[in-house]
Amino acid sequence: MTMGSNVSLSALSENVGSAIISLGWSSPTGEGDADVSVLLLDSGGKVRSDADFYFYNNPVAADGSVQLLGKEPTGDGSEDRISFDLTAVPDEVERIVVAASRYEGARFGELDDLKVTLADAGGESLLRFVIEDAGEVSAIIFGELYRRAEEWKFRAVGQGYESGLAGLATDFGVDVDDDEPDSESAAAPEEPAVPVAAAAPETGPPAMLEAVPAPRGPVDTEEEAAPKKRAAARPRTAKKKVTPPRAPVKSLAENESWKQARLFPVSALKSDRDRETRATSVLLSVMTQVPRFGRRVTAPFGAPSGRMETYTEVSLPHGDTPRRPDGVIRVERAGKLWTALVETKTNGNPLRSDQVQAYMDIAARRGYEAVITLSNDVALEGSPLVDVKIDRRRKHQVALWHLSWAEVAHQAQMLIRHEGVGNAARTWLLQDLLHYLQHENSGCHGFQNMGAAWVPVRNGINDETLCQGDPRALEVVESWERLIRQVCLRLGGELGQKVLPAQRTRRGTDPGARRARLADQLCLEGRLQAELRVEGAPGLLTLSADLRTAKLRTSVEIPAPEQGYPLTWAKRLVRRLAEAPADLHVETLVEGETGGPRGTLERLRPEPADLLPRDGSTRITGFRLSLLKGMGSGRGSAESGFIRSVDDAVQRFYSSVVVHLDAPASGRAAAAKERASV
Predict the structure, then answer these.
(1) What is the chain's mean pLDDT, rounded?
(2) Average pLDDT of the segment spanning 465-472
(3) Which tens digit of pLDDT belongs to each residue from 511-569?
(4) Residue (of 140, 63, 62) closest to 107 by Cα position
(5) Is the Cβ–Cβ distance between 553 and 587 less than 8 Å?
(6) Angle at alpha carbon of residue 95, lines to 89 and 101, rounded to 5°
(7) Which of 13, 138, 432, 614 is the Cys-Cys partner for 120 at CB 3.0 to 4.6 Å?
(8) Taking the model in full, what pTM does it have?
(9) Enclosing H/E stretch for 430
(10) CA proximity to 83, closest of 120, 31, 125, 58
(11) Maximum Cα–Cα distance for the chain, whole Å?
């Protein structure tokens, strides 16, 4: 691309629900570097609040729409990768600005090979923009994603700022408190000013008084939405390079009873205290030895990207009795320290409020930034696992965060199987950590118990004695939500894709009120329901647990194509599902009616026309595919337990049904595909 040009993402790929943008550069001295930042802008060209400004101290969006993945070495320099889930970007966000900044008086003119690349969800490179002459600027807008006619487009910008990151952020409505000290460590970039106030009023375009203007392309119009003709076909490149684990070699053991020596053994763990001590030490050690993994674990908690050290068996004064947190994490950047205390639990042991409160008080007195609790439980939005009192009178506030062992295993699995860590030894370390976490004796298995209310609620539904307002129903709903979050982590780790719960509620709705409504629904209908958004899937995965019939139903709805004939749609769908289970239920969705023709795949294979309504004038809106499975009765994660049955149902449905379906297509690509199939 050239400076000022733009292109529709749907014209380049059918798989642009997610995208990876990489900013790259090289340094003649080998020491030059820069930091990336992302700003989400509304229709007025301003951030909605300071939360729309993402940089190394705020690297992950709560809704999953933005995630700064960190730096990665390349053959001639380094690059910073940013993941975007465009389907999760709020509707009021119209532009996403991608920029980078230098520090301590450094300028982009001192770097070579400045470029930005964009890849789709499958890792396929779609475009490349090279900035030829950056000049004496300390911040640059490399490019921007923006909406136009319900499509996402990319514009190559290349606009520089002499005023650095603070000037760039201010122009887009971020109020920054620029009070950094004059002298900083030369080995690391200084901290950019942290946004401290809401967005500026939406009055007119940004001033850009100190910006170095760059040529811009013509104003985008509806007619321009169609891509220009190219002289040659767009070149295809290989998918992103990863470091996958090597295929296992033939064992030299005499028989299967021989067990290999492990770096992190679990055989000597005899008590919960032993498990907690060992698990904490193993995790914190691997975090320091595999920096990308350590960064993945700590980034959501606001930790900067920098040199990390971790500690165990630390004694900290607290009244008459010193306290010993299970671990301490310290990250250094630009001469500043970010510190978090770690409190760990294994098996089903709950976190203790008094213990966490003591660590919060210690952290506040010592100026630490966070307390991180780590257990098999899963935290819920708006529902803390432990109640602590925060003294708002303190100038220094401490953040309380929770991490599930399932999340730790998920991050390790993503790096091992899908993204790589660029080093065989580090890959081996992560593999041994994952083996440790998954071993039955480690106590680090994630959410594994539906709670004491599960059996009484299940029996009350069967006996029709469960009444609305019963607090036990709310407990089951909360456990169900925790289970769904863990199912998303496990499926995402298997696929290497983002999987998130899809909770259809208005922004700002109280999570507690939503759970109360679901609890009432459980009492009335006897069902638990959830929706999962899987990156690249043709629709939301719906999971329903009917406690009256003890059946689990997993399903997905796929929209009907915009062009073509209904019989062609039915034949193509049945053909796509050639390897799906014969007991798969297929239902035709029709406009204005509760349901259309339906049947099992076994019956429909010889006669796809049975999916068409007898009234040929009825409009088909889509198809629903469903699998039924028996529901486990136990509250735990044993083979016959409810938790295992839910996990197995989702895994089976995705691997046997969803993988055979087309990913959602849009724009010109979708229209061309339909015309070709008619």
Answers:
(1) 81
(2) 91
(3) 888 889 999 999 999 999 999 999 888 889 999 999 999 999 999 999 998 888 889 99
(4) 140
(5) no
(6) 105
(7) 13
(8) 0.66
(9) helix 424-438
(10) 120
(11) 83
